Amino acid sequence: MENTNSAQPEQLRELLAQRVEVQRADLVAGYFAVLRESLFSNRAEVRPSMLKSIASDEADALLNFLRHADFSGAERGERLHQAGFNAGAILKLGQVTRQFLLNHLENSQIAPMLVLVDVYQEAIIEGFVQSIDKEKLIELERVRNALQHSDS
Amino acid sequence: MPQDNIVDASKPSAGRMYDYFLGGNHNFEVDRQAADQITKLLPFTPKFMRLQRWPLQDIAVEFSEKRGYDVIIDFASGLPTADHIHYKVKKGTTVIYSDFDPIVVEYTRDILKDTKDTYFFEADARRPEELLGRPEVEKILHGRRKAAFAYWGISLFLSDEDIAHAAKTLYDWATPGSCLAFNAQGADLNLQDPAMIKVLNIYEQIGNKLVTRSLKQCETLLQPWKIEKEGWIPLLEWNGFDQSELAREDVTAFGPMGGGFGAYFVK
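ok -> structure tokens follow
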């Protein structure tokens, strides 16, 4: 197992990306399990038939984050909120990613990788929360317009 | 479904409670309190609501892609959010939604904006002739009467007479080859279950007397529409679940298959 203590961030990213690729099925299964578990807590827009592809997309998103500097975790978070997922599901997805690291990396690799993945998770949560705020404002405006029209 | 509570935010409305059960935002505190009371009595209720909501897009695909209908008319639509019919139809399919809640109709203008070939009208599902006879609808359809109808998620709120009238009206209006997707809500509900009795009372208190009926009774009311050979599909199965999704008390109150069924009928 390669020593990652002195590895550059790019090397860390690539190492983790390779792990994700090799163990992708395991990661996707973990994502799917928590999505299934939280299915009935999300908004109804999240349908059971979507879960497999969302679990797979989630693994792709992590890979994109690791390999493409311009990938926006915040956009991913925003998209998950717009799809109808609740905060609980997002946090559980993050736990799966962390557990994946613990299961598939050597002890010396875990600390720097967790730092890396935390950056990703924070960006996702930030995008998710921003989307909630944005939606609230849109909803308020819709309600105001609807009430105004129905009163007139 | 009586209309008195629809635009009154001081009383619970069954429509807004439904939205809350589905995790939506189009509801008020008074709706959430009533819905929470129901969930406390019957914890399966939010699942029951979701199981009945999820098939909508399957129906859209079935109508539009598999059966090739270019006109889909939906009754008691609620908000056309991302899980609704128009998201899953082939390009060029005309989707006409309707709801009797004027707030929903207004709200929808902003959601649909200029979505092509998708329309939303204020209309009561009990009287489809009002929707079908609107000059705007006639203009949109331009004489097309081979249509696919979705009459979904509403039967609990309608009397036998309402359902029979709606079915006959749609049958008479549509040309042969038309299709109707119908959701029999609560066909196996245990009306002796103490928690179920309390829930029925809550709905009655807010002005919505729930009407349950057997699948056979539904078929009789929907005549002359003919049920397809696949028959009634339990919504649990429709959504890819099995009975393990239900706790023992859920089975006691909602029946072994969760209380909801769907079927396609043809003319």
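Chain B has a mean pLDDT of 92.
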